[in-house]
């Protein structure tokens, strides 16, 4: 699907990561694999350390911490928020939506369009698209987009397939109307037939959680997980990304008469370094223009990885200059999307840590 | 075939591999190695193999046959 936007821009970006950091070498003993093979895996995938909450932290905890930081620094006023989009796969409750929880905890006024989106690794792209649609309304001038996942609480610590790569994080992105903003082109594709490639099988109404869904079962590779845990078919996802994403990006670049060399930075979702380097190779993008270090330093936080890649690699430049960037997100759904836009100079572009000792929801 | 064997030796972390070597005889033949073969098939042969398809291979040569057969198809 082709999507186009005009007169809209991203004006600020903040990410929140848990202060609590864990190292892959310390977690290796949890996995049913030889240390030698685990170290090889870490080298190839780029596993080193990741940010994981220590206690019962929820998505709204991280989101509220981020927004309160912006209020305290005068970078955002409570009263000017016209819409709040929360993209998460780890909501505080089945109902009401986490956007309502955040709205209530922050004491926002009643004229706020709050909406939750259940999206995974394409969640930043989808969130921006939703925010842009809201900005078409004359009464909506400023949209706050929150991407947040606390996936560590849904992944089995004994699943070497997923646990070493995941991280928890939130981002707050501000989107506003800007009559002078250059046009933005985007592409989006969905394939629900392949929805089981990334799934938490139990906990919804199709398979409610009970004692049996909490039971740890060993798979053929030696990973232990329960039906309540995230299950990723790593190989199917790898094939999906390697096939669909380059085609999507090539199409977007060709249809906008854009060369790879015209793009300052390819800010892609961060599944692991291996997959990102394969994507860069296929697209002919030099590695220094496609950050791939988020899994290594913070972990893969699904829909939050593009903001994490942005605030950890480009914050100094993005508060000063305007960069031409190509965003891409791909994952659960399956969903894959890309967006070509000019980013910056931003009012703010920073990362903060969430201290669990000081902030109890 | 020579280039394929060199690629396989690197994936399996061996100095050399023989076409008749059984994959399960290598300690390094695991899901990561499978993924590396998928990536190599894509990169060097332009073939999109799934890990499931590769599971049918017993020997190194079987892998080569599976990849080249799919490329020819």
UniProtKB/TrEMBL annotation, chain A:
GO terms for biological process: fatty acid biosynthetic process; secondary metabolite biosynthetic process. InterPro entries: ACP_syn_III_C, ACP_syn_III_N, Thiolase-like. Residues 115-192 form the Beta-ketoacyl-[acyl-carrier-protein] synthase III N-terminal domain. It comes from Sphingomonas parva. SUPFAM superfamilies: Thiolase-like (SSF53901). Residues 253-342 form the Beta-ketoacyl-[acyl-carrier-protein] synthase III C-terminal domain. Keywords: Acyltransferase, Transferase. One of its GO terms (molecular function) is 3-oxoacyl-[acyl-carrier-protein] synthase activity. The keyword Kinase does not apply. This is Ketoacyl-ACP synthase III. CDD domains: KAS_III. Pfam families: ACP_syn_III (PF08545), ACP_syn_III_C (PF08541). It comes from the Bacteria. PANTHER family: 3-OXOACYL-[ACYL-CARRIER-PROTEIN] SYNTHASE 3, BETA-KETOACYL-[ACYL-CARRIER-PROTEIN] SYNTHASE III.
Automatic annotation (TrEMBL), chain B:
SUPFAM superfamilies: ACP-like. PROSITE patterns: CARRIER. Residues 1-71 form the Carrier domain. InterPro entries: ACP-like_sf, PP-bd_ACP. It comes from the Bacteria. This is Acyl carrier protein. It comes from Sphingomonas parva.
């Amino acid at each position: 699907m082709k999507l186009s936007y005009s007169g809209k821009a991203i004006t600020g970006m903040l990410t929140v990561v848990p202060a609590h950091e864990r190292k892959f070498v310390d977690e290796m003993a949890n996995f049913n694999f030889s240390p030698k093979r685990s170290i090889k895996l870490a080298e190839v995938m780029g596993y080193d350390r990741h940010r994981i909450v220590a206690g019962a932290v929820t998505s709204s905890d991280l989101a509220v911490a981020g927004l309160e930081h912006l209020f305290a620094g005068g970078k955002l006023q409570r009263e000017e928020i016209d819409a709040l989009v929360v993209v998460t796969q780890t909501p505080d409750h089945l109902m009401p939506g986490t956007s309502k929880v955040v709205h209530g905890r922050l004491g926002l006024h009643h004229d706020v369009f709050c909406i939750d989106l259940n999206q995974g690794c394409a969640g930043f792209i989808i969130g921006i698209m939703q925010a842009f649609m809201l900005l078409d309304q004359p009464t909506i001038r400023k949209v706050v987009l929150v991407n947040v996942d606390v996936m560590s609480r849904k992944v089995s610590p004994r699943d070497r397939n997923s646990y070493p790569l995941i991280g928890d994080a939130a981002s707050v992105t501000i989107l506003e109307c800007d009559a002078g903003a250059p046009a933005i082109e985007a592409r989006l594709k969905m394939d629900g037939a392949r929805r089981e490639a990334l799934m938490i099988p139990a906990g919804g109404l199709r398979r409610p959680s009970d004692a049996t869904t909490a039971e740890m079962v060993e798979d053929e590779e030696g990973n232990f997980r329960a039906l309540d845990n995230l299950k990723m078919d790593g190989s199917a996802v790898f094939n999906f990304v390697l096939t669909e994403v380059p085609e999507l990006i090539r199409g977007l670049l060709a249809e906008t008469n854009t060369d790879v060399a015209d793009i300052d930075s390819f800010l892609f979702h961060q599944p692991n370094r291996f997959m990102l380097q394969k994507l860069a190779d296929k697209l002919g993008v030099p590695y220094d223009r496609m950050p791939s270090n988020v899994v290594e330093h913070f972990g893969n936080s699904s829909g939050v990885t593009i903001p994490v890649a942005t605030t950890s690699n480009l914050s100094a430049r993005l508060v000063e200059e305007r960069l031409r960037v190509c965003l891409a997100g791909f994952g659960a759904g399956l969903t894959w999307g890309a967006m070509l836009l000019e980013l910056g100079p931003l009012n703010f572009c920073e990362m903060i840590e969430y201290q669990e000792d000081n902030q109890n929801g | 075939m020579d280039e394929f064997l060199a690629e396989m030796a690197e994936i399996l972390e061996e100095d050399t591999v023989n076409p008749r070597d059984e994959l399960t005889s290598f300690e390094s033949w695991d899901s990561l190695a499978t993924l590396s073969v998928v990536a190599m098939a894509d990169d060097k042969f332009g073939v999109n193999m799934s890990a499931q398809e590769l599971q049918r291979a017993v020997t190194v040569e079987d892998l080569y046959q599976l990849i080249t057969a799919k490329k020819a198809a």
